[in-house]
Each structure stands twice: as structure tokens, then as C-alpha cells.
Write a structure and sequence with these properties.
By secondary structure, the protein is mainly alpha-helical. The chain is about 50% helix and about 10% strand. The chain has four helices and two strands. It has a two-stranded parallel sheet.
């Protein structure tokens, strides 16, 4: 089964989480479940951004104290949101997770 991941889909989930309408853990499981889908198809031209956002969000599903260090900061989430909305050009080097 083909699962399409679009900027709109990810923006909606991210906005729910930031507004407190969805927990970080639920958002983490949402991203984790999407990443496990076999027929995953990203919106053309946004593949890297969408994959990076899902990878960042999926860390929230693991609530072990050790894993908290991998949670994306609010600043990173807001940057992703700007990029997903088309307000900024995505530069992977601006996100600390991808500088390793």
C-alpha cells in the first residue's frame, strides 16, 4: 500500500503537537509508524526535508530518560515548520541533529 507523506500532512501533525492538541509521545509514534510503512512516498522535491522531520519527531516516542537528549528542540521544530510551509529554504546544516 502506497503511503504519501506531504508537507501538509506533517505541518498538521506538528501544529497539533505545538498547540498541545497532541502529545509529544503520540507525535513520536505517529512519525515512527509512518517511517515503518513499506510503500512510503514523499512529496516530490521535499524528500530530504520530510524524511529529516519524521526522523527528528520519531525520537519523541521513546520516553526513556536517556533518549531525551535526542529530542528536537522547539527552535528546530519551528524551523522545520517554516521550511514545510515554504517560508524558508531547508538547509540541513541549520539543524543540530544533522551536524554530527
Amino acid at each position: 500500500m502506497l503511503v504519501k507523506v506531504t508537507r501538509k500532512l506533517v505541518v498538521e501533525q506538528l501544529e497539533k503537537m505545538l498547540a498541545g492538541e497532541a502529545s509529544r509521545e503520540d507525535t513520536g509514534w505517529w512519525a515512527y509508524d509512518l517511517m515503518l510503512e513499506e510503500g512510503l512516498e514523499y512529496e516530490p522535491g521535499c524528500e530530504r526535508l520530510l524524511a529529516d522531520v519524521l526522523r527528528s519527531l520519531h525520537y519523541f516516542h521513546d520516553t526513556e530518560p536517556f533518549m531525551v537528549q535526542f529530542y528536537p528542540e522547539t527552535e528546530e521544530l519551528l524551523y522545520y515548520l517554516k521550511c514545510l510551509r515554504g517560508d524558508e529554504f531547508y538547509q540541513r546544516s541549520r539543524v543540530i541533529h544533522w551536524r554530527v
